[in-house]
Amino acid sequence: MAFMGRNFAAPSKADSSAWEAAKRLWEAGFRFVGSGYHSDPAIPKSKSDISEFIDNNPEHKQKVGKQRRWTDYA
């Protein structure tokens, strides 16, 4: 289990794309924190949108954690 922030809504168990997206966001330091009222882009929920989102949003308001590798944590 990893802390994703109090506003994280877990996807359904069967949604492997959303779980992979959550894992990659966590590794990049993104957390679902704060009120959600900011002008930064919304965090994507599918694996196909994650790489571009992470590359294009290094100063995102919800990038508050350290970069980590899941295999080192789990």
Question: What's the structural blueprint in terms of helices and strands?
Answer:
Layout: H1 16-28, H2 47-56, H3 70-73
Short description:
This protein has 74 residues and is mostly helical. It contains three helices and no strands.
Give a structural overview.
- With 74 residues, this protein is an all-alpha fold.
- It is built from three helices and no strands.
- The protein has helices at 16-28, 47-56, 70-73.
Keywords:
mainly alpha; globular; 3 helices; 74 residues
Described by strand count, sense and barrel closure, the largest sheet is: none
Molecular shape: globular
Helical content class = 25-40%
SSE run = HHH
Total number of beta strands: 0
Q: DSSP strand (E) fraction?
A: under 5%
**Structural class per helix/strand content?**
mainly alpha
Task: Using the CA coordinates, give the radius of gyration.
Answer: 12 Å
Question: Whole-Å distance between the termini?
Answer: 8 Å
Number of helices: 3
The whole-number mean of residue pLDDT values reads: 84
Unreliable spans are none
